[in-house]
């Protein structure tokens, strides 16, 4: 979700709460046709209640459902956020009224610097720029046919990843699962993006920079409270500095690719095609090709969209395999049945037919969606949802875990049971077109275009990890499945695991 309220510390919020002393009573919500919600404090809206709950927003929302029902309003300073938390309302918003709620809200000034004024698939208003950029991304880099052409690039990156784990487990018995997995996914994506064969150090450098961009672009207090904006003047200067660093790091990669395209024969280790190639001459704004700064933004979106989401899912997946060794054995047996115990490395063609592994990945995304909210939606014009008003400038937030664990739709919704998806059991079609039961990638016009690639990376990486290693808990006590928001919803205690080579 666009608002990372989760970064707002209680201290910061409490320190400005003196403003509320100007008003000695709570003010009810002004607009009677908005969905219900807690009473608002002047200026702060509901920020104070959120701070006093001492919870991150992802954990605060479930407290409000029994009080206000499946649709409610929270105000964060000057912004109105409408939350929907059940499958029926999600279906109404994302499928039945897909076009009405297909836009995004305005950017904060800092985010505008990084998005080149909304020049990305994820941030663009619903309209021509969005359609052109999205169509290009889907057909030129994320289509199943194109994904197949990157087979050997994926193998190279995953082999290097397995070597890293082997080396790390030989020198230090515990592996940091998220750090290693993030690196593997980022390696695949950066190679697909620029078509270059980069060294670990170069990949690492860009990865660190991308994280810095995410942190800098995260909304902070002044985005909700325009009155205190002057206090945050330094933030803009800092953002411009980080943007320059990002451009200085990425433009040389763009120029390197331009050189390769001029003389492909001189660069046999470069790929035949990259995402960047599809962008260089793309006619978007004013029918002109993107500038270098816009190319940096579009390439960064590709790298960021698919890295943390995929790596987070794998961290939760390995945690579940450690916690439930019988599931881990069953997946290993399924791999062995397909490729043999001492035979070749498993590939994506093999995983397509592995029914239990596929069920495991579905259950993983049901129980541990990497994003608890879709990206923030906005109405293209004033609209209605669940009988309430949704004004054009409101932020529409869809809370995914409440849908995927709705006890009306799922048996033993809180349990982790891949078996539920095996033949004759429960089903879930993840695009949500017919019916919404779990939508870890969103649904409707703004559904994640990377769903196919994300699923493929999660499935293949998990399969390789189980084929090569037996995963165990280094500690005696059971794993802690607490969660926290850090761009995606990660394990509160980052998973450290023992990886025992199987041969
Ligand atoms: C496990 C992996 C992934 C998960 C769980 C995930 C989840 C999501 C979600 C929940 C949304 C918001 C949908 C909405 O607003 O309704 C989204 C949007 C998006 N995702 Fe993903 N994603 C994943 C992988 C990827 C990958 C691999 C890419 C591409 C490299 C990608 C690129 C995007 C883009 C560009 C959007 C914005 C779409 C639009 O606004 O039209 N994602 N994703």
From TrEMBL:
Heme binds at residue 448. It holds the Pfam family p450. Its cofactor is heme. Keywords: Heme, Iron, Membrane, Metal-binding, Monooxygenase, Oxidoreductase, Transmembrane, Transmembrane helix. The chain crosses the membrane at residues 6-26. InterPro entries: Cyt_P450 (IPR001128), Cyt_P450_CS (IPR017972), Cyt_P450_E_grp-I (IPR002401), Cyt_P450_sf (IPR036396). It comes from the Eukaryota. One of its GO terms (molecular function) is monooxygenase activity. Belongs to the cytochrome P450 family. This is Cytochrome P450. It comes from Dendrobium nobile (Orchid).
